[in-house]
Every structure is written in C-alpha cells, then in structure tokens.
Amino acid sequence: MNFPEELKYTQDHEWIRIEADGTAVVGITDFAQHELGDIVYLDITSVGQTIAKGEVFGTVEAVKTVSDLFMPIDGEVLELNPEVESSPQLVNDDPYGRGWLVRVKPADGVDEEGLLTVDAYKDLVGQ
C-alpha cells in the first residue's frame, strides 16, 4: 500500500496536499480505495460551496457500498477533477495522482489541527 510522505491524512481516509499557489488538493487514500473496492461513481456537487472541516462534500459509490467524503479543512471547493467525473476508476488506479477529487481554497490559511502525518495514518490503518 502507498503512503506518500508529503501528504497529510484524516481519520476518515482522505488526504490533502497544499499546492505552491495556496490551494489544496483532496482525495481518498490508497487504503480507502482498497477497502471500498471498485469505484463506479462519484457524487460531488459542492463546487462553489464553502464547506467546514469535517463536513460531507460528496460521496463515493463502489460496487458494494456508498461512502461519504469529509472535508479535511475549512474551504471553498473550487473544482472537481474532470477526469474522475468521467472515469471514477482513476481513484482506484491512481488515488494520489490522476485520481484526486477536488481542489479547495483554504479559508484563511490551513488549519492542520487534527490532520495526521504519514506515520500517524499508518498507525491508524495498522500498517
């Protein structure tokens, strides 16, 4: 299983990467996509909305289940990854690359409280 060092993680199995321009990219972890199985649909209708940390910003549907997606920081959802909208299996194939979900404008800086380091996330998932 893949756990990139440069990312921060949530207890709900999302990852976040802060870009050089100050925006943040959010996706689900390799562990999460593995547990969900084949992802067949993403329902993310929160583009343009400001979502509080911990609130649901969409859902991911796999063959056997539907799971909520939780925002790791306070921020405005700027865009949905157009590639995963048309090819949701990219989340399974490349969760940290082409399978990212949304780009977010953090609200007044990034509050990293509650976000996990790679080591803390590995401990959470027993790796």
Fold and architecture overview:
- The protein is an alpha+beta fold.
- The chain has a single domain (8-125), classed as RNA polymerase II/Efflux pump adaptor protein, barrel-sandwich hybrid domain (OB fold (Dihydrolipoamide Acetyltransferase, E2P), Beta Barrel), CATH 2.40.50.100.
- It contains 4 helices and 9 strands.
- The strands form 2 sheets. A 6-stranded antiparallel sheet has the order 1-2-3-9-8-5.
- β1 and β2 form a beta hairpin.
- The longest helix has 8 residues, at 118-125.
Quick synopsis:
The protein is an alpha+beta fold. The protein is 19% helix and 33% strand.
CATH class descriptor name: Mainly Beta
Q: With helices defined by DSSP (H or I, 4 residues minimum), what is the helix count?
A: 4
**What fraction strand?**
25-35%
Under CATH, the topology can be stated as OB fold (Dihydrolipoamide Acetyltransferase, E2P)
In angstroms, what is the radius of gyration? Answer: 13 Å
Q: Please outline the major beta sheet.
A: 6 strands, antiparallel
The N- to C-terminal Cα distance equals 9 Å
